[in-house]
TrEMBL record:
Its main location: cytoplasm. It comes from the Eukaryota. One of its GO terms (cellular component) is perinuclear region of cytoplasm. Belongs to the TRAPP small subunits family. Sedlin subfamily. Gene3D superfamilies: 3.30.450.70. InterPro entries: Longin-like_dom_sf (IPR011012), Sedlin (IPR006722), TRAPPC2L (IPR044760). Pfam families: Sedlin_N. This is Trafficking protein particle complex subunit 2-like protein. GO terms for biological process: endoplasmic reticulum to Golgi vesicle-mediated transport. It is found in: Cytoplasm, Perinuclear region; Endoplasmic reticulum; Golgi apparatus. It comes from Cettia cetti. Keywords: Cytoplasm, Endoplasmic reticulum, ER-Golgi transport, Golgi apparatus, Transport. PANTHER family: TRAFFICKING PROTEIN PARTICLE COMPLEX SUBUNIT 2.
Length: 133
């Protein structure tokens, strides 16, 4: 999860031994997200949510993107060998993430733009990652 200024609100990776590689991949994909948003221009305003789809594939991973109306960016990196995940499943996972993020934003004790420290959000992300693995 990244705020509109592209600094991270929440990053989670499994397995953790390649965490630095995933951070690099996610940060480089933000450029692709920005390119897709600027290419869509006015069409972005008309949509309630924006699923960007596959941002780019690498040899080992596929990187997907999603942007909310408030320009919060969600980036998901999935192992390329996982052929069970189709576009509909990825879209559904992003919707689930967006709903959980909305719940966090509704918390009166959360300051927008702060890093996310929520046990409920962690639990939801962990369960989603276990389904994929």
């Amino acid at each position: 999860l990244f705020c509109p200024q592209n600094y991270p609100l929440y990053i989670r990776s499994v397995p953790t031994e390649n965490e630095l590689k995933f951070h690099y991949t996610v940060h480089t994909s933000l450029d692709v997200v920005d390119e897709k948003i600027s290419a869509m221009g006015k069409a972005l305003v008309d949509q309630r949510e924006l699923y960007l789809g596959l941002l780019y594939p690498t040899e080992d991973y596929k990187v997907y993107g999603y942007v909310t109306n408030s320009k919060v960016k969600f980036v998901m990196v999935v192992d390329s060998s996982n052929t069970a995940l189709r576009d509909n499943e990825i879209r559904s996972m992003f919707r689930k993430l967006h709903n959980s993020y909305t719940d966090i934003m509704c918390n009166p004790f959360y300051n927008p733009g702060d890093r996310i420290h929520s046990r409920a959000f962690d639990t939801m992300v962990n369960s989603m990652m276990m389904q994929v693995c």
